[in-house]
Each structure stands twice: as C-alpha cells, then as structure tokens.
Amino acid sequence: MRTLIAGLGNVFHGDDGFGVEVAARLLSADWPDDVTVRDFGIRGVHLAYELLDGYDLVVIADAVARGGEPGTLYVIEHQPRPDDAPAALLDAHDMAPDEVLALVPALGGTLGRVIVVGCEPKRIAPTMRLSEAVERSVEDAARLVVDIVDQASTGAAAPADGQRIGGRT
C-alpha cells in the first residue's frame, strides 16, 4: 500500500505552519519503503502533481479552523463531491487542501483515501512561531499520523471522521 504523508502550511504565518512542523518531526522517523513523507509548505500544485503518482492513502497535516479551542486536533476523512472542480489558479501558492485535491482528477489522476490531521489554530498572522497551544499539539499529531498509517496498513479503521483528539476540546 503506497502512502503519502504531506505537511502543508505557511511557516511565515504562525499556526499555519503546523503541518510543516508535523512533517519535519515525521521525516526523522523510520518508515517502510512504501511510505513517503514530504513537506509541501505552500506548494499546493506540487502536491497535486505528486498525487498523480497514485497513492492508496494520503495523510495531510494542516491547520484547520473548525471553531474549537486552539490546539485541538481533528481527524477528517476527505469526501470528494461530484461537483468538485479546481478553483482558478490565480495564486498556486495559496491553494486550500480541498482545491489541491479537486485539481488531481482535473489533471487526469485518481485519489485514494485522504485523511486530514488538522489542528485548530490560535493565530494566523505574520510570525515564524507557532502559538504555545499549537506547538503542544505537534507531537500528538505526529503520533496520530503514525497510528493512522499503521492502522491503514493492517486494515483497521482510522479514528472517526471529524473526531476531536486530545483534552483541549
């Protein structure tokens, strides 16, 4: 089973750099040959082209605002809609994950299972530091990604869609 772990976000905008930090932690782990870990940062188009290589599982780490307490982790199963169409590529560096995923079929690719490990941000503002709440969640998120990949490789179910993780709910 081919798996891609993708960290997304802008390290120059505070908590938006969450996914990049998670990817940095996971890059140092020992992974099987069929698991690829990459920091895509703000390069959404590069992620879309990478997905054309065909992955059975894609785990995306990113900041996700859903109204919870800062630092709350979420597991979100991506459900493409039939009417998904890529947005106009006016700024390829500022594509949201849904736009990137919608671009894949438009480029002739097929998406496998996509799970987002998201973290509720405290602040998205010009700074190169994560807030304390989000920084405390990075290690938990990295462990969660490892668990999702392990569970998928054994056929076990991942945490429920939209599940909040941790005591900061």
Walk me through this protein's architecture.
This protein is α/β, with parallel strands linked by helices and 169 residues long. It has a single domain (3-165), classed as 3-Layer(aba) Sandwich (Rossmann fold). 30% of the residues lie in helices and 21% in strands. The chain is built from four helices and six strands. It has helices spanning 18-27, 44-51, 97-106, 132-154; strands at 3-8, 35-41, 57-63, 73-77, 113-119, 163-165. Strands 2-1-3-5-4-6 form a six-stranded mixed beta sheet, with helices on both faces. Helix 1 (18-27) links the parallel strand 1 (3-8) and strand 2 (35-41). Helix 1 crosses helix 4 (132-154) and helix 2 (44-51) packs across helix 3 (97-106). The radius of gyration is 15 Å and the shape is globular. It starts with a strand and ends with a strand.
Number of beta strands: 6
What's the quaternary structure here?
single chain
Query: What's the CATH topology label?
Result: Rossmann fold
C-alpha-based Rg, rounded: 15 Å
Distance between the termini: 33 Å
CATH superfamily: HybD-like
Q: Main sheet: which strands, in order across?
A: 2-1-3-5-4-6
Strand content: 15-25%
Backbone shape: globular
Q: Unreliable stretches, pLDDT < 50, 5 or more residues?
A: 88-93
Helix content: 25-40%
Helical stretch count? 4
What is the SS-derived class?
A: alpha/beta
CATH hierarchy: architecture: 3-Layer(aba) Sandwich
- Estimate the mean pLDDT confidence: 87
- Level-1 CATH class name: Alpha Beta
Please write the string of helix (H) and strand (E) elements: EHEHEEHEHE
Q: Domains counted in the coordinates: how many?
A: 1
